[in-house]
Amino acid sequence: MNVAPKTLRRLSDLEETGLATTDKRAALERVAAQYAVAITPAMAELIDRADPHDPIARQFVPVAAELNIQVEERADPIGDDAHSPVEGIVHRYPDRVLLKLTHVCAIYCRFCFRREMIGPAAEPLTAEKLDAALGYIAAHPEIWEVVLTGGDPLVLSARRLKQVVTRLAAIAHVKVIRVHSRVPVADAARITPELVRALKTKGKATYVVLHANHARELTEAAREACARLIDGGIPMLSQSVLLAGVNDDPQTLGELMRALVECRIKPYYLHHGDLAPGTSHLRTSIERGQDLMRAMRGRLSGLCQPTYVLDIPGGHGKSPIGPNYLSQDEAGRTRVEDFNGGSHCYPPGPAT
Ligand code: SF4
User: Fold this and answer.
1) CA of 313 to the centre of ligand 1 (A)
2) Radius of gyration (Cα) for the chain, nearest Å?
3) Which atom of ligand 1 is found nearest the CA of 114?
4) CA of 332 to the centre of ligand 1 (A)
5) Is there an atom of ligand 1 within 6 Å of 58 CB?
6) Cα 93–chain centre separation
7) Count of other CB atoms within 10 angstroms of residue 194
């Protein structure tokens, strides 16, 4: 009898499958005690054990470097708590809120910006707390969009998701439901026709934003899962995190953006790495990110261009931090740079 491969959660699982060695056990026990570990069979299978720099392993396999906490790193790097009027809600921008339905994920990313708050040990959002969170949304008519996040909301059953979507649909001023998830790549089989139907609701637009950081994550199964969502009437966008040793070179990043577009997924955000504890080995400089955006501009279709953003530490929201193509010369004239680095004068606009 064939036994279905299981999600790797214990260090012994990682050792048995060649993803960790016993000589690292003591350090990794300290890492795993602090930050959740889970690697789904689909992602474990993608890892090349012979490559010590494998970009999939780098994202999911715990390493001792996570014990190096830098002074600038913080438990709540993007300042969720400062904007949480009731548990489960983050209301940072006027017209939208995050609704954190669960603290659990199918897979745990080593760079996660919410790594201090997520994992199986974190407290779930109880029915009473969900009532309070939905009550908050209903009481704030300025909320046009609700972003389901977590954790990963697509680990929940289709039945549970349907209940939440139905309750959101009953709030007249909520027009858009956006779901952020890594499940279509990490555990594609969860994207069943029933789950797709659960996310759709009459009169509201549902979007799914896929989190993917390397083209190899878009396996055949992942592509089919995304097609089920899109063919089911749910447009998809993507968000990726710029990660040292994973996607911080023009070719790899370009391949990722093209693979997404080929799957009918519009690249939306490229996030600069957040100041999450123990993640400095995965962060790049902002200058590096800007160079990569310049390298993609003009060489890849406009469809493949995400917005490079930084979540300002402390809860001040996202700002685009891509390169600036405008400058002024000594004569005060506006100059604009083309994608080959050439500089061109642009005539002054009308006086305002
Ligand atoms: S799926 Fe998202 S919330 Fe979960 S560990 Fe990865 S980045 Fe964090």
Assistant:
1) 18
2) 21
3) 8
4) 47
5) no
6) 18
7) 12
**Nearest residue by C-alpha to atom 7 in ligand 1:** 112
In angstroms, what CA-CA distances link 113 with 5, 109, 138, 150, 297?
28, 9, 28, 11, 27
Q: Which of 116, 84, 77, 113 is nearest to 98 (CA)?
A: 84
Residue 74 among the catalytic residues: no
Mean pLDDT for the stretch of residues 58-72: 97
pLDDT in tens, 214-236: 999 999 999 999 999 999 999 99
**Which amino acid is it at 23?**
D
C-alpha–C-alpha distance, residues 62 and 38, integer Å = 10
Residue 186 Cα to ligand 1 midpoint, Å, equals 11
pLDDT tens digit sequence for 240-275: 999 999 999 999 999 999 999 999 999 999 999 999
Helical pair 250-262 and 286-296, crossing angle rounded to 10 deg = 60
Q: Is 109 an annotated catalytic residue?
A: yes
Verify whether residue 51 is a known catalytic residue: no
CB of 108 within 6 A of ligand 1: the answer is yes
* Ligand 1 neighbour 103 (Cβ under 6 A): no
ω into residue 322 within 30 of 0, thus cis?
Answer: no
pTM assigned to the model: 0.96
Longest dimension (CA), the chain: 78
Query: Which backbone phi and psi does 163 adopt, to 5 degrees?
Result: -60, -45
Distance CA 143, CA 139 (A): 9
Burial of 3 (0-12, 13-18, 19+ CB in 10 A): exposed
- 204 catalytic residue (yes or no): no
Please enumerate in sequence order all residues whose Cβ is within 8 A of that of 33, keeping only pairs 6 or more positions apart, or say none.
Answer: none
Ligand 1 atom having least distance to the Cα of 118: 3
109 C-beta closer than 6 A to ligand 1: yes
Cβ of 152 less than 6 Å from ligand 1: yes
